[in-house]
Design a protein that fits this description.
Length: 269
C-alpha cells in the first residue's frame, strides 16, 4: 500500500492528489457526505471523491468533561482516531480481513482537543453477519457453509486475542461479507469476512482474560438468534483455543463458563 506523508498525516496517492493544494485537516473537516454519527466530538460519514466511495471518522476533540466522565465510569475515553488505524495495521499484519486504509492523521498535544481522522475505502455491496443470522432462521445454511463460517470467526477471534488485541465491541453486526451471500447462502474458507468498527480496540502484549470474556461473551450474545447446536459451539471453542477438544474442556472450563455468564447477562438487559 503506497502512502504519502503530508503535514503529519498519511494519505494514499488518490487522496494526496485530490488534496494537493489544500491543508489536509481543513479538507477533512469540511467533507460532506452521508452522516452516520455526529456527537461527542466524533463525526462518521460516507463520502464520494473522484468516483470512489470512502468512510471518514473525524475527531474534533472530545473536551475534558467527556474524558473525566468516561474515567469516572471506569471507561477508557476515545480521544483520537489513532486506535482505529493502529487496529487496522494490527489486523493486516495478522492476516485478518478488515477495512483498507486510505489516509489517517493526528494533530495537537492536548488530549481534550486533538484533531484526528481515519479514512478507509467503503466496503460496498456488503452485509453484516447479524443479518445472516436472522436469515438463517428462515433459510438454514448447509452443513459445510455453517462449519466454514464457524471456523472463520473462531480463527479471527483466536488470532486477534492470542496476539494481544481485544475489540471491545465484538458483535456480529461488526463483521461484513459480500451481500451476494443472501442469494446463494454458501460460504467457504476463502470467503472474506471483514472486521470493522475498531475505534475502541485495545492492543497489548497479551489480551487479559477479562477482555477475552467480554469479547467472546458479546459475540455469543449477538449470535443468540442463530440456530447453533452444542456441537457447533464446541467446534468454535476448540478452534478458538487451538487445543484438542478434551484438553480445551479441561483447561479452559472457567473461561467458557464466564463467557456464558457474560452472554446471559447481556440477554437479560
Amino acid at each position: 500500500m503506497a502512502l504519502m506523508k503530508k503535514n503529519s498525516c498519511y494519505l494514499r496517492q488518490d487522496l494526496a492528489r485530490a488534496w494537493a493544494d489544500k491543508p489536509v485537516f481543513d479538507a477533512v473537516a469540511n467533507i460532506d457526505g452521508e452522516i452516520f454519527r455526529d456527537k461527542e466530538g466524533r463525526r462518521t460519514l460516507r463520502f464520494e471523491l473522484n468516483d470512489r466511495s470512502y468512510f471518514l471518522k473525524y475527531h474534533q476533540g472530545v473536551g475534558w468533561a467527556e474524558i473525566i466522565k468516561n474515567l469516572l465510569q471506569l471507561r477508557l475515553p476515545i480521544i483520537s482516531a489513532r486506535n482505529e488505524w493502529q487496529a487496522i495495521h494490527f489486523l493486516e499484519k495478522h492476516g485478518i480481513e478488515t477495512m483498507t486504509l486510505a489516509g489517517y492523521g493526528e494533530q495537537g498535544i492536548n488530549p481534550a482537543a486533538l484533531r484526528s481522522f481515519v479514512i478507509t475505502d467503503d466496503l460496498v455491496n456488503t452485509m453484516s453477519l447479524e443479518y445472516v443470522g436472522e436469515q438463517w432462521q428462515q433459510r438454514p445454511p448447509g452443513f459445510a457453509t455453517k462449519q466454514a463460517l464457524i471456523r472463520k470467526l473462531a480463527n479471527m477471534a483466536g488470532t486477534m486475542h492470542k496476539n494481544g488485541m481485544n475489540h471491545r465491541d465484538f458483535y456480529l453486526c461488526h463483521f461484513l461479507l459480500d451481500e451476494r451471500f443472501a442469494e446463494h447462502n454458501t460460504f467457504d474458507d476463502k470467503t472474506p469476512v471483514y472486521l470493522i468498527d475498531l475505534h475502541r480496540a485495545t492492543i497489548r502484549h497479551k489480551t487479559p482474560k477479562r477482555w477475552q470474556i467480554k469479547d467472546l461473551g458479546s459475540l455469543y450474545f449477538s449470535a443468540s438468534r442463530v440456530p447453533l447446536t452444542k456441537r457447533d459451539k464446541l467446534r468454535f471453542m476448540q478452534i478458538y483455543s487451538g487445543l484438542p477438544l478434551r484438553t480445551m474442556l479441561s483447561e479452559q472450563a472457567d473461561l467458557w463458563r464466564e463467557v456464558e455468564r457474560r452472554a446471559q447477562k447481556l440477554l437479560a438487559e
